[in-house]
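Lab notebook, entry 82. We have the chain sequence and a SMILES string for zinc ion, and the next step in the workflow is to get a structural model of the bound complex before anyone spends time on docking refinements. Request logged below.

Task: model protein plus zinc ion, output structure tokens.
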Amino acid sequence: MTKYYVRVKPQLTGENAVHKETCPFLDDIKLKKYLGEFSTCQDAINEASRFFHHSKGCPFCTSEHLSLQQNQLRTWYRFSLT
Ligand SMILES: [Zn+2]
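Result returned:
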């Protein structure tokens, strides 16, 4: 089981990113809500959706970055910091 957090402030894209406890982006996030422990990322996103309708898994936490282009990743990262 992994601990998951959701970013309270939406990104510029309007989504609330769901992160694992171990995510490198999590340190930069001041307003985050602890969701609980889940065995899959999708379960955590489902839980986050109860609070934030546009919850979405962080590309790093969901391993989506493996299929993302480098520039897409950079765009996502820029959005995640605002
Ligand atoms: Zn993350």
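Notes for the group: The chain has one domain: 2-81. Worth checking against the assay data. Strands lie at 2-7, 16-20, 32-38, 55-57.
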